[in-house]
Design goal:
2 copies of one chain form a homodimer.
Chain A: E1 3-9, E2 13-21, E3 24-31, H1 35-48, E4 51-58, H2 87-95, E5 99-103, H3 104-115, E6 124-129, E7 133-139, E8 142-143, H4 177-181, H5 183-190, H6 203-222, E9 227-230, H7 239-251, H8 264-267, E10 268-269, H9 277-290
Parallel strand pairs in A: 1-4, 4-5, 6-9, 9-10
Antiparallel strand pairs in A: 1-2, 2-3, 6-7, 7-8
Chain lengths: 296, 296
């Protein structure tokens, strides 16, 4: 039985892996350059390590409307040369195997649901806070897709411009959540990358405030049973406790459940799979592609 | 075959109905007073018009965790005498029939899904803008419940206090969406009820702005295939066109789909059932209670 392939297609790197799960996975990483060059590396990788099917968790936005003639293509990304790229189609045609595709965060949510921090819940939110901010929601055991797919980083949040005059870094919306709280926003606001900002710097309380505003909105909208947050920015050790406290302050006792009270540490939690949620979730997409259910 | 009963349990009135759908429904309305007095009226109504089962779409928040010992009870409502009220339990015991319960907006969403403006979509948002603001979301054909249930009115939205110094009317969160844009907020901000505010008053553009901020957040979070908006405030004829335009302005072309472009009039739409979405949806809850699936 041939193994499955997973691709985490990110804006700066592509992670390709072959395996069956967290304990059986070999991976390689390529820089994201042009679609042509990047795909050549991907196809060579899987040519050398044959698989039954491939799953792709991709940056986006993607066209995921099942009825669309451009299903699977990347749409309004600021990375212009990738606009319109038919990632799953190209890979499937080159390798002759079924390829399933979904957003990077939806793939990561699938990974966490199967092997990670959301194994025991059917309704949860996976969030990543890195260069950008994205979220994948599972409701009743199924990924939320709807009209297109969620673009959670782009929700609007309160922004006190007297306190934080930074105008926001999102080219579409200025001070949406991603515009205020992504790694890119942190670096532009403070002039240094998040990884080089000290623990006692006010950047972290401000970051926790914006992230908690997003979480409060998602708690009120999706009522998740758990919130799993990955991404490079979350590696800062003060952030999780600050975000949990600020979320409780913002909700102010309105949503009554132990998860938002004494059990908050378990409610807002890092991924169980570390940085591998996405590529492992891509294996779940590959498995579904085998079964013919495509990206769903 | 006995018919089904539906109750729309609101903060100011209870609508009780017996029937099988929009073309076969007889209803009566009671003022919401004390739990004891109100329930007495409800029970007398169904005593005189026997039904197989009853569905209740109730104001809340409600405890809807299936595993909870206080399932079905009203929790942190500002109407103190209703806190802890076991609406479905009391009615079921008094009448000896199964009773299903869910939030008022979830019931309305079920009504719109069965007979109204969302018959053809499996992923949509039902929103009501009246005394308060609430929302019910259907994802993949199922109501979103999760940890508790959504409390959509309480999402946080940007609030420019220089432009709109009104501090917000929500006792829990001040200027959450409900605090800024409910009928209560409109009346407090301008000193007159929404129903008496003229068409050319700046209140309507401000209202459309806040509602569109909420919709933009929900489009980015749930990616609904339709947004159905009911409630007294939406009866103002200028509001739908203003909200649609403002939603498009806020999304700024980021979510690419005809629904958010040329088809916006169909995307953001009034309920198909007018003011009867809730009580008709309660019939769907009754039907489910018959089948033993409770509130789900």
């Amino acid at each position: 039985m041939k193994r499955l392939g997973g691709i985490e297609a990110g804006g700066t790197k592509f992670v390709c892996a072959v395996g069956t799960g967290p304990d059986d996975l070999s991976a390689a990483t390529f820089d994201t350059t042009t679609p042509w060059e990047t795909l050549r590396g991907v196809i060579r990788f899987f040519h050398d390590s044959p698989v039954r099917a491939i799953g792709v968790g991709s940056f986006g936005p993607l066209d995921l409307a099942p009825e669309s003639p451009t299903f699977g293509r990347i749409t309004s990304t600021p990375k212009l040369e990738w606009q319109g790229c038919d990632l799953s189609g190209e890979i499937s045609r080159a390798l002759g195997v079924p390829v399933g595709i979904d957003t990077d965060v939806n793939a990561a949510a699938l990974g966490e649901a199967r092997w990670g921090a959301a194994r025991d819940v059917s309704d949860f939110l996976y969030l990543t806070v890195g260069t950008g901010i994205g979220g994948g929601a599972v409701v009743g055991g199924r990924l939320v897709h709807g009209l297109v797919h969620p673009e959670m980083g782009h929700i609007r949040v309160p922004h006190d411009v007297d306190f934080d005059p930074f105008p926001g870094a999102c080219p579409y919306h200025g001070d949406c959540l991603e515009g205020l709280a992504s790694g890119t926003a942190i670096e532009r606001r403070w002039g240094v990358p998040a990884s080089r900002i000290e623990s006692d710097h006010p950047a972290w309380e401000l970051e926790a405030h914006y992230l908690a505003l997003g979480l409060a909105t998602w708690v009120c909208t999706l009522s998740p049973r758990r919130i799993v947050i990955g991404g490079g920015v979350m590696r800062h050790r003060r952030l999780f406790p600050l975000v949990r406290l600020e979320l409780q302050r913002l909700l102010n006792g309105y949503v009554r459940n132990p998860a938002l009270g004494p059990d908050i540490d378990r409610y807002v939690t890092p991924p169980g799979l570390g940085e591998r949620s996405g590529v492992l979730g891509a294996l779940v997409l590959a498995e579904r592609a085998c079964l013919g259910s495509g990206a769903r």
